[in-house]
Amino acid sequence: KEDNDSNEEDSDSQQNRASRRKNYQRKNRDGKKAGEEGSKQRDRGKKAPTKDQKESENKEKKTTTKGKEGENKQKKDRRNSTSSASSNSSDEESLSEEELAMLMEQVEQKKKLISTMRNKPWRMVKKLSVLREAQAFVEKFEGALGKGKGKKLYAYKMMMAKKWVKFKRDFENFKTQCIPWEMKIKEVESHFGSSVASYFIFLRWMYGVNLVLFGLIFGLVIIPEILMGMPYGSMPRKTVPRAEQATAMDFSVLWDFEGYIKYSALFYGYYNNQRTIGWLKYRLPMAYFMVGISVFGYSLMVVIRSMARNANESTADGDDDNFVFSWKMFTSWDYLIGNAETADNKFASITTSFKESIVDEQESNKDENIHLRRFLRVLANVLIICCLCGSGYLIYFVVKRSQTFSKMQNAGWYERNEVEIVMSLLGMFCPPLFETIAALENYHPRIGLKWQLGRIFALFLGNLYTFLLALMDDVNEKLAEEDVVKNITYWTLLGHHNSSVGNDSTATPPPLDPADVPRGPCWETTVGIEFVRLTVSDILVTFITILVGDFIRACFVRFVNYCWCWDLEAGFPSYAEFDISGNVLGLVFNQGMIWMGSFYAPGLVGINVLRLLTSMYFQCWAVMSSNVPHARVFKASKSNNFYMGLLLLILFLSLLPVAYTIMSLPPSFDCGPFSGKKRMYDVIQETIELDFPLFVAKIFSYVANPGLIIPAILLMVLAIYYLNSVSEAYQRANGELKKKMQMQREEEKNKRNNKTSTNPMLQDLDDLITPSTKTESQPKQAEDKKIESPDRTSPVRKPGKGAVLDGSPMTGGRGAALAPRSHVFVTQPVTPGIWAPYPGQPRPRGPPLGLVPGRGRGQPRY
Amino acid sequence: VCRLHGRYHEMAPNVVPMDYTKDPDVKLPMQLIINMPELKENPFKERIVTSFSEDGEGSLSFNDFVDMFSVLSEMAPRELKAIYAFKIYDFNTDNFICKSDLEQTLNKLTREELTAEEITLVCEKVIEEADMDGDGKLGFADFENMISKAPDFLSTFHIRI
Fold first, then answer.
1. Which of A260, A358, A651, B59 has the fewest CB atoms within 10 Å, i.e. is most exposed?
2. B16 & B85 share domain
């Protein structure tokens, strides 16, 4: 019998062994019910009894020592063997090689079962018991797997692995608990649905990114300068000039970011150009430059990673319009809603959306006046372009005017802040204007929303770039001025030395008080100040808008409603809805400005972090207290990538000006970490030459050779092209496969309409629900189905037979009935020879012959 | 899980024991569960509870309770959610979503604000769109095929607790 055993073991496949083992366990039930399973015993489902069989089997195993051999023998006399005692008999001491391998297989299988337990649609009880059994099995035999001296090490390794897994899980739990504002967002979500909550999730994500950037800048640039650099007042660039010292502490001056703030670590001008500072020999200019670049690099990486993640999750692949009503029915209810008012709104919006779709459906055949619609759309676009141009010119004009104002001595508050005010006002009034003009266009609401977002984006972009151009003019002016000041400074210093030394030219002259040195116009600091001012005014405008537009309005509507003619709540002002798109765009543009300004004003990111933090709390409060849920559902899922795409665009656009100024403008001669150099990026060369060993410099000089860079760029372009075409090919193949699967499935279902399915998923389902009586399929609807649904798939199939496909539906009165199964029909009239090039399609040949009579029934309808 | 047990317990403190090591046989009736704040506004709450309950009557033991919330959580895989969604929308539990099931779903969704012909139109459209095997009702394969392409199924079929 032993020989038989070993022979059979050699020849059997692993799967068979496993299944036989399970069989054995199942059949070997001895009515031994584990106490825990007793009350939960269920009748339905043949898998239910196995759990306590397995439990009992487990217990038996535990009592026997090395019962494996015996069990192997028992496996052979499997069916209906009820001898539980047999498992106790004939235990052998040693484990042979094959049994070891088989045991390892078992353990692996159990492990796999444990890891996929989540996906199985079994009852919780069943899952729990199977899980426990599998775990116990794994635990028991894993330790036994290592032989002899290797055993202890193996068991130890297993234990460490398990501890590691547990640690990772605990860490994940801890991380989930640490996510800030989770409860707050959940509250907003339950009142307003998932779309409004998506804005807050986006806000939270931005906060995270900004926090990292702030940490980078603060830790690597600001702190070293403050701790190890020269203190305030020691150098000209770090001191407030004598002329300004009188007003340096005034609040109005501080508010404009002049005075003491201008000469602080918040701005570019404060930093010294010493190559290394402090006892650490920290290379500050190099650090400043690298941090500036890595800010962009990190942001880019984070945005792209987030986009890729979103793209993976959205699985909708172009079958968009095929299931409109089904999706509406089954996925429109947001299960997260827990508030009665929101639920009411949701019901209303679902009803409205159904009605809209019904009307769409009925109207889709109606022919509107195409020409009128086109004319209106063109008109609307023309109007909007005019608005955009007008706003662009307005900004340019205002910026030019502000330059003349800054020359004036007593400019009032309005004149100084005119630019920012105008830009904010434009941002406030133009979008509603666009919306009203867009009513002419009569688009589907979702498309209309995209147009609206695009237009507002263009508006803000135009504004931003006009602002930048004006700024560039300013900078150029300052650069010209600089030359003049350089000379003045030089001569002043010289004059000072001469006058203080007198006749003795060898003694060191007393240093000139830093406040008295004539100062160059530090254009970088000016740029930084402009950005900071813009950001601050943007923040203020946003907060005030929320306060007035939402809160005051809500108070007004609520309290004045008692004594007003018409119903304020239902009629004109009513409560405000949360403007998701406007807010998101505002956030995106704000971030763009931060990116642009952070190189020249390191403190800007800190300001932004504060702003995002307060904004989160403030907006959560505002939404909960004064907004009402949307009347119309805004689907949050697809738009996520749209916002990320906008963010990416803004990132590139904000990279451009900074890169341009770094590369082409000379830094100021007396302020900033790059002062004295010809170009800012010279700092890299300097570092390489002086700090790295010689060969590194040689390597870099070779690499920077244009002869090497241009081929590299060409190579990358070619790689992009190749990858693009490969991905397109995959997508096409994907589409084809899907269509093929669909067609095959339909044919299968048609053939086996009344037979029970062997789909394992359906079997699981059967276990859970009482089996139903299968109703007969209705041939009429079957025909309908077969004819209509393949309609959508036929145009894509078999491109090689395109000509023939196109021919057949047109000819003859067979009409639509012919089109879907055309690949079937084509074989009939045309010689089977055509099928030869498609050897991979043996299947469809079978059914057509059987289906033709079926078709015959359907045909006369057309 | 401890949180869930806390919630389960607070629904009926007298009945639910704190100690589950002895696996007591405790079930909460449907009425208690339907009144949970997460489920209160849901038009399908009875169906949800029924489809997770072992005895088909709507009483949930703690295991079923945990099961329900785990399937409805963010982490559950799509296929699992599809299976249970099918069960929820199958009102007459005949393993198919037939026209009457659809009508009931629609009525619950719109609180019966649509006219009769609108209802029939919508139901017909749904069957037309999703029924692959042409039997006039949605089998599980049809449903799964349709729902797997839906972009917001995962985000709407989700309860946070």
1. A260
2. no
